[in-house]
């Protein structure tokens, strides 16, 4: 009997190692430890042995039973752990939500592709800018209202570059001068980026917004070249029948300067709520680069001329999608962002 008990134990342990599922484990447990198993029959037969034999055989039987119970418990824990960590390929998969580009990022990439076709490179500049590049180099005099604290974020930090005050750039135009100093002439560059203004936020105003600056410098450049580029941009954004209207506007860094307006893409110039019944949408400022700005960039205005323009990217997206609150762009609200 003792030899048979040990033999059953060895067979049970060997078969236990081959169990790959909880169902197989349960069948193995019933086979070797169940009420009708041979092992249980041997335990009941101990009563028929003599006292000496029963004592010796009982000791071996109880030890074997204890080892089997512990082995089954250990195997069960292993299978339960593997089941919780494994992948059940029969279950339906869980779809991960698809990520989307922010609408501002989308318009930037769209315009970068367009302008690269026109021979422009895309460049960046610092958001923490020197007063010199943000104002002085752009022909903005010291008494100009834009330099006042209520319009500009000034920082109480040392400027190791040129000693001027540091500001959060109020437009992307400072990169014009940096690009001229870096690349020289001729030059075709666009500058998308964030800008900052010290103003109260509402549905039409935000302290952080995006612009896209454009600059072209070469010999014998005139206003008609600027008009041609802006017409290409308008037709790309709003359709092949889009017309451009330029109206005189003063900007310190261009001369002459203008506001750029496109025919309303919604009413096709007939007048509607979007364009306030004018038939036109104002989306940009532009002009011929002022000679003082060319000089600040290290370029001889007697040899080279250029034009510059700036789009308000938030406004472009608001017009395109009918968004009525500019604050939504910085809200991080997925209900808004998932629409694009």
Descriptive report:
The chain is of the alpha+beta class and 340 residues long. It has 2 domains: 1-78, no CATH class; 103-338, Bira Bifunctional Protein, Domain 2 (BirA Bifunctional Protein, domain 2, 2-Layer Sandwich). It is built from 11 helices and 10 strands. Strands 1-5-6-10-9-8-7 form a 7-stranded mixed beta sheet, sandwiched between helices. A hairpin with a 5-residue loop joins strand 7 and strand 8 (254-263). Helix 1 runs antiparallel to helix 2, helix 1 runs parallel beside helix 4 and helix 2 (22-33) packs antiparallel against helix 4. It is elongated and about 125 Å long. It starts with a helix and ends with a helix.
- CATH top level of the largest domain is Alpha Beta
The fold-level CATH name of the largest domain is: BirA Bifunctional Protein, domain 2
Oligomer status: single chain
Number of helices: 11
Low-pLDDT stretches: none
Mean pLDDT: 86
Essential attributes:
BirA Bifunctional Protein, domain 2; seven-stranded mixed β-sheet; 2 domains; 11 helices; alpha+beta; 340 residues; three-stranded antiparallel β-sheet
Topology:
Blueprint (H helix, E strand, L loop, with lengths): L1 H16 L4 H12 L4 H8 L5 H35 L17 H15 L3 E2 L5 E3 H4 L19 E2 L10 E3 L5 H10 L3 E10 L11 E11 L4 H16 L5 E5 L5 E10 L16 E10 L1 H6 L8 E8 H9 L12 H4 L3
Parallel strand pairs: 1-5
Antiparallel strand pairs: 2-4, 3-4, 5-6, 6-10, 7-8, 8-9, 9-10
Helix pairs in contact: 1-2, 1-4, 2-4, 5-10
């Amino acid at each position: 009997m003792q030899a048979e008990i040990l033999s059953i134990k060895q067979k049970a342990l060997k078969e236990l190692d081959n169990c790959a599922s909880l169902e197989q484990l349960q069948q193995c447990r019933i086979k070797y430890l169940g009420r009708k198993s041979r092992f249980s029959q041997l335990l009941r037969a101990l009563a028929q042995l003599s006292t000496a034999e029963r004592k010796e055989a009982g000791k071996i039987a109880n030890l074997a039973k204890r080892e089997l119970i512990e082995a089954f418990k250990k195997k069960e824990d292993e299978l339960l752990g593997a089941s919780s960590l494994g992948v059940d390929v029969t279950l339906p998969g869980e779809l991960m939500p698809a990520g989307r580009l922010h609408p501002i990022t989308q318009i930037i990439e769209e315009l970068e592709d367009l302008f690269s076709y026109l021979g422009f490179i895309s460049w960046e500049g610092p958001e923490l800018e020197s007063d010199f590049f943000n104002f002085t180099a752009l022909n903005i005099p010291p008494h100009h209202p834009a330099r006042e604290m209520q319009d500009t974020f000034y920082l109480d930090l040392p400027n190791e570059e040129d000693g001027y005050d540091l500001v959060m750039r109020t437009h992307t135009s400072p990169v014009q001068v940096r690009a001229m100093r870096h690349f020289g002439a001729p030059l075709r560059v666009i500058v998308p980026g964030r800008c900052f203004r010290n103003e109260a936020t509402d549905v039409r105003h935000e302290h952080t917004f995006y612009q896209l600056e454009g600059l072209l410098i070469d010999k014998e450049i005139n206003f008609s070249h600027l008009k041609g580029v802006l017409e290409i941009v308008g037709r790309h954004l709003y359709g092949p029948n889009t017309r451009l209207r330029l109206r005189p506007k003063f900007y310190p860094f261009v001369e002459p300067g203008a506001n750029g307006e496109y025919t309303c893409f919604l009413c096709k110039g007939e007048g509607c709520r979007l364009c306030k019944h004018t038939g036109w949408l104002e989306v940009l400022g532009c002009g011929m680069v002022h000679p003082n700005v060319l000089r600040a960039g290290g370029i001889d205005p007697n040899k080279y001329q250029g034009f510059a323009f700036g789009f308000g990217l938030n406004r472009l997206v608001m017009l395109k999608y009918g968004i009525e609150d500019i604050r939504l762009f910085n809200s991080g609200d997925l209900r808004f962002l998932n629409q694009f």
